[in-house]
Amino acid sequence: MSLPPGFLDELRNRVPISRIVGRRVTWDLRKSNQAKGDWWAPCPFHSEKTASFHVDDQKGFYYCFGCHAKGDALGFLKEAEGMSFMDAVAALAAEAGLPMPERTPRERQQTDRRAQLVEVMDSAVRWFRLQLQTGAGAGARDYLAGRGLDRDTLERFDIGFAPDLRQGLIRHLAQAGVPEALAVEAGVAIKPDDGGAAYDRFRGRIIFPIRDGRGRCISFGGRAMDPNARAKYLNGPETALFDKGRNLYNLAPARAAVAKGAPLVVAEGYMDVIALVRAGIEGAVAPLGTAITEDQLRLMWRVSPEPVIALDGDAAGLRAAMRLIDLALPLTGPGQALRFALLPAGQDPDDLVRAGGAGAMRAVLDQAQPLADLLWQRETDGRSFDSPERKAALDKALADAVARIQDAATREHYAAAFKRKRWALFAPARAERGRFARRGEPQPPAPQTRASTLVAADPGEALIEAVILALCATHPALVGRVEARLERLDPADPGRAALVHDLLAGAMSAAGRAALDAVMADPHVRSAPGVAHPAASDDAAQQMLLNAFDRIEARRAAREEIARAEAEMEGLVDEGLTWRVTQSARARQQADHPDLGGDSGVMGDQRSLADQFAAARAEAEALMKRRRR
What we know:
Blueprint: H1 7-14, H2 17-21, E1 38-41, E2 53-56, E3 61-64, E4 70-71, H3 73-81, H4 85-96, H5 105-132, H6 138-146, H7 151-156, E5 160-162, H8 168-175, H9 180-186, E6 189-190, E7 199-200, E8 205-211, E9 217-224, E10 233-235, H10 251-259, E11 265-266, H11 270-278, E12 284-285, H12 294-303, E13 308-313, H13 315-328, E14 339-345, H14 349-366, E15 369-370, H15 371-380, H16 388-403, H17 408-426, H18 428-439, H19 447-451, H20 459-474, H21 483-489, H22 494-505, H23 510-520, H24 523-526, H25 538-569, H26 575-592, H27 609-628
Helix pairs in contact: 1-4, 3-4, 5-9, 11-14, 16-17, 18-22, 20-25, 22-23, 25-26, 25-27, 26-27
Protein name: DNA primase
Organism: Paracoccus contaminans
Enzyme class: transferase
């Protein structure tokens, strides 16, 4: 219906938002300033113990600093009470003592029709409940008892039974004055296309009422008792009351449980939800016979900022998780996250609870993985990355996925997480050395350790490497800027390799901490600018760090060029000449790179990488030419 100008503003002005919100929260009076209309409470939309939910009467808005829920009084009634917009307006008008504007005849007719449909559904619920207690419902009672559902559970979920009668419910409704057309419109009866008599939609099925966020029955789900039935589960059609893509089974009780601190757990079906609730996991909901929709996802996030998706432990459950990843990625962000709990193979929540009890299910929920981990698993499981092209394909798939995330901060964190995972995947030798070091176990020397001249013959290079590690540890904000170069550092020392891994991962292990202590124990490292003065700006430290990377990369490149020249001269020159070429090039490197200590730090003059390549190559080629003549 259309509302006159200024009507909503008048409602908001007459009713302080704290009066509406205060019915659902407990104010923190120590933090609140009642005289100024400034109120604080634990958030009713997500589980927390601190008062991060702020209500401002002067502005008429609420905001949660935890889950970022926000809105006005109408928005609160819609989110917290599950009201439609017009129902929220009517509730606020009643609170303000203002009459609602007159509705048009069409609007009144639609409202009256919906009220009639709700009455039809309530009547059907009572009839189905009664049928479960009759002789015809004996088989259904036995089945439910075998699934562990006691009388209290049947009453809590209003579970009933539809006997295998063509017009059992229709006759009951007709006796109560409900016309056939209204039963069809409510979705409990079907009218044949040939114009024949209507018949019951649900026959020979256990009945599960489906309720909206306000607790009103809006449809039914039926489980067939006949194992040969074409559909094991059957839901009612979409009606003026029921949109299956916008509702969740057990929504209202789950929302109340989440407000008291329970997690929101999303299972696949009615029996899974019932099993979870019976196990004490009361914040359980389920989609209604279809894959989770975007509307259902947004509805979940209005209840909890991080629902746990509990999927069956089979291939179908995993495929459902992967489809949900693609749906959720563009929507994910602060206050809109997902975690995935994958059950043991071949088990659903009902199976697991019956086999292992509530503790087994809680253990699975406690191990739920964030969406990023499942996305990484999807892109890497069962695949080999033994070529540049395959690695590039992984990079592209991950980059495309991250690009779909609309929230900039979340996108940045996803990219950083995937870089860390990629580094660990593509550097198994470094990771293995790090694991040995963390366990304190001896390990055989890696090939690069045996072949390297870094420690044995080039202590200057080891010092530069130490300064790089110290600068990264002292200025962690720089790690992201030199991530690729830090990956290529590849220290031969296992402790330093573990330290590189920890710096890139952003978390320090015992092995990494021990290696850092050893690095910092060197007086030359401690005296290097940026390390000796950790308060120095990141920009100044970055210049020193880049200089150090240039130095070590130039040294290693020159050493590789020397080795290449020696190989090319093999057979053309004697060992003495080869030795002199090597010593000449190394002496030039030492002259170009003074000590790292003192004021010079890592900022001294140096030749460019290209110059060092050219110099080593030119000397080798000149000697080779003279030898040939």
